[in-house]
Amino acid sequence: MIDFRTGAPVTGSLDVDWHAGWPSPKHDPAPEIQVHAYSEHTVILRQNMSVHHEAPFLFLLFGNERALLLDTGASPDPAHQPLRATVDTLVGQWLARHPRKEYGLVVAHTHGHGDHIAGDGQFADRPHTEVVGPSLDAVTAYFGFEQWPLRAAELDLGGRVLDLLPGPGHHEAAVVFHDRHTGLLLTGDSLYPGRLYVRDLAAFRATVDRLMAFCGTTPVTHVLGCHIEMTRTPDEDYPRGTTHQPDEPPLQLTPGHLRRLRDALDGRHGPCGDFIVVYQD
């Protein structure tokens, strides 16, 4: 059995050049999905921007009894996004190093927008696999949330425990995942270097308050969202629909960005540098 608790949070690597599309998408030589091993038991994937401009990041976390795939990307067709094959290969490689008789997979989501759930169908017939629906009822029932969105929940992958924090504001059923093993805070579309779309301002403020309070008492190594939309020039983003972003900043943000976001939501300053707040009716 792997000990996911001792020495946590463990150090991982974000020394990676994320592929950010190609000048001619049809001639992009890169694979449809980029795979980066953050640590022995944690993998970050990114869908190729030449396949879909959203280029979402996905996360695969291994526990002793099952793995968690967080989000399934923006394209349903395995020919354009071979997510099932990629995950099966990664699981097979992990099991070769850490043999188990049976090993499960949970497919869940940071939230239910189309660019995060499009690949769900690829896992519908996969053995030992549970696909959590993206609706609020499905999310609260599966993870056992009580008094949503006031109370957190936990997910145990077999000695590897994640804290699940309600995160509505961008989407009513959004969840922020904190991995105790690595200290990563996986914020979905609630915070990332890009355009943060606020659909419910009161709920979004409350989410940021919860995250700030959580970070005040819990080790957080990096804040990882699901997109990069900014350039390296502060306050300058790439236009929506861009399929080549050669001047991207890193994916990772810090807990300090939550305070900057909270101030922005209160109107206490304008430009935010690493992200842009967009209010939607």
Structural write-up:
The chain has 281 residues and is α/β, with parallel strands linked by helices. It has one domain (25-279): Metallo-beta-lactamase, Chain A, CATH 3.60.15. Helices cover 19% and strands 23% of the residues. It has 5 helices and 13 strands. The strands form 3 sheets. Strands 1-2-3-4-5-6 form a 6-stranded mixed beta sheet, covered by helices on one side. Strands 7-8-9-10-12 form a 5-stranded mixed beta sheet. Helix 1 links the parallel strand 4 (66-70) and strand 5. Helix 4 packs antiparallel against helix 5 (256-265). The longest helix is centred in the first third of the chain and has 15 residues, at 83-97. The model has no long low-confidence stretch (mean pLDDT 97).
Overall helicity:
10-25%
Q: Give the radius of gyration.
A: 18 Å
Sheet bearing the most strands, described? 6 strands, mixed
Total number of β-strand segments?
Answer: 13
Mean pLDDT: 97
The coarse overall form would be globular
Poorly predicted ranges: none
By CATH, the architecture is named 4-Layer Sandwich
Percentage beta strand? 15-25%
How many helices? The count is 5
Structural class: alpha/beta
The SSE string, one letter per element, is EEEEHEHEHEEEEEHEHE
Name given to the CATH homologous superfamily: Ribonuclease Z/Hydroxyacylglutathione hydrolase-like
CATH class, anyone?
Answer: Alpha Beta
